Amino acid sequence: MKRIATLCLLLLALNGYSQTNAELDPKILTSKAVMNQFMDLRFGMFIHWGPVTLRGTEIGWSRHHQVPATDYDTLYKVFNPINFNADEWVKTASDAGMKYLTITAKHHDGFCLWPSAYTDYNIMATPFKKDVVGLLAKACKKYHIKFCIYYSVLDWYQENYPLDNSTDPKLADKRKKPDMEKYVVYMKNQLKELVKNYDPYMLWFDGPWEAPWTKAMGLDMYTYLKTLKKDLIINNRLGKSFSGIDADGTAKFLGDYDTPEQRIGSLNMQTPWETCMTICEQWSWKPNDKMKSLQTCIQTLAKVAGGNGNLLFNVGPRSDGAIEPAQVARLKDMGSWLKQYGTAIYNTHGGPYNPNDTFATTRSGKKIYLHVFKPVTTLTIPEMPGVKINKAYIMKGATVALMQTNGQITLTLPAVLPDPNDTVIVLETDKSTIDIAPIKNEEKK
């Protein structure tokens, strides 16, 4: 029995699953094949949206703070986003080159963007009265975008959830008769609605850090969800440990992939991961929010792919339901770049070099895609053990001179790079690059 258990743990480790996942029945874990297909997508759209956009403050977290709860909790009564158009949102994602979309169906504030049968605090109680989740699911099918759903574990509105707002411990006693067991049933009922009615490709959980939620609850919820849909992908935030904002590549998490937040994860060829990051500064809409430059957006995507991760890039539509035109334009420019260089992003593996501020690399078959971020005329990188470069050239452009001596590869680049945001140099090799171990490198000009 001990030998069999050890073998099971070894197999789980080889598949990239964490120690926490080892406590689950291996038969229910999302397969490596499904996860590989997810990681091939590389680029997705995150959408944080709800009645709080009427105040322009952060979703969930501004409740009791910038916005009094009595105001926050009644915003839905006047929430009427007449300019919402699911097709336009999804087309924006498609034009950006994004392959999946994740909507905050229920954030920490508890408001639901679908007509849930288990609470009146949902979109049908607004003047708008349209199933946002359903309309987005339909539009995603039209544009061949994978549809995904965000759902918060915590809920500062629902009466059975024990806490009112984790950022203010004085509010912890506000609930008169909280019942976590009933709340878990509430969660399961709502999640069954979402899975059965909208058939999401992936569920993106958040908020497991509060004390009422336990590791046992996370294990039970993952198991339950797999009875609803076998190949459903589930992120790492059902458990109590995940990298999030602070830790990096934590060895223990419950779910199918790690989720570094507002930062780029480190190169990791074993554990799937996805950076979630905002295109501006706030997750939900904020008037005059500062937007990232096109260069930063493109280089972030390249660095994430170079680390073998996906980028879930967030937009916050306005209270009228429209995405800011400037954000739409920025995303479209990213899509234009991907139309030229997408081969170096989609369906690739990260590495073998660790990304830095000068370059990142992705790889596929007998090709290394070198993403150059800075206007350097000479770029020197360590040689790849046992691999020879036969040819170097700018993607869809001229040949690049190279030398391979003394354990180094030196490339001579044009004085003016074709793309100031990210010029892709293709290195054709004499053998497959997939099995090359990660190579530490220093930035050299």
Provide structural commentary.
The longest helix has 19 residues, at 180-198. The chain has a 7-stranded parallel beta sheet with strand order 5-4-3-2-1-7-6. A 5-stranded antiparallel beta sheet has the order 8-9-10-15-12. A 3-stranded antiparallel beta sheet has the order 11-14-13, with no helix packed on it. Helix 6 (180-198) runs parallel beside helix 7. The protein has helices at 2-14, 32-41, 69-72, 86-95, 132-142, 180-198, 215-228, 294-306, 325-341, and strands at residues 43-47, 100-106, 146-152, 202-206, 233-234, 274-278, 310-315, 349-350, 359-364, 367-372, 378-382, 389-394, 401-405, 408-412, 423-429. Mean pLDDT is 91; it is low at 1-17. It has 445 residues and is α/β, with parallel strands linked by helices. Strand 13 (401-405) and strand 14 form a beta hairpin.
Q: Briefly, what is this?
A:
The chain is of the alpha/beta class and 445 residues long. It has helices at residues 2-14, 32-41, 69-72, 86-95, 132-142, 180-198, 215-228, 294-306, 325-341; strands at residues 43-47, 100-106, 146-152, 202-206, 233-234, 274-278, 310-315, 349-350, 359-364, 367-372, 378-382, 389-394, 401-405, 408-412, 423-429.
| Structure class | alpha/beta
Question: How would you write the strand order of the largest sheet?
Answer: 5-4-3-2-1-7-6
- For the CA atoms, what is the radius of gyration? 23 Å
CATH fold-level assignment of the largest domain:
TIM Barrel
CATH architecture of the largest domain: Alpha-Beta Barrel
Report, as a whole number of angstroms, the end-to-end distance. 56 Å
Helix tally equals 9
Q: Low-confidence spans: pLDDT under 50, at least 5 residues? A: 1-17
**What's the domain count?**
2
| Topology, number of strands | 15
Globally, the shape reads globular
Q: Which homologous superfamily in CATH is the superfamily of the largest domain?
A: Glycosidases
Oligomer: single chain
The CATH class label of the largest domain is Alpha Beta
Mean pLDDT: 91
Order of helices and strands: HHEHHEHEHEHEEHEHEEEEEEEE
Largest sheet properties: 7 strands, parallel
How helical, in percent, are the residues?
10-25%
Strand content: 15-25%
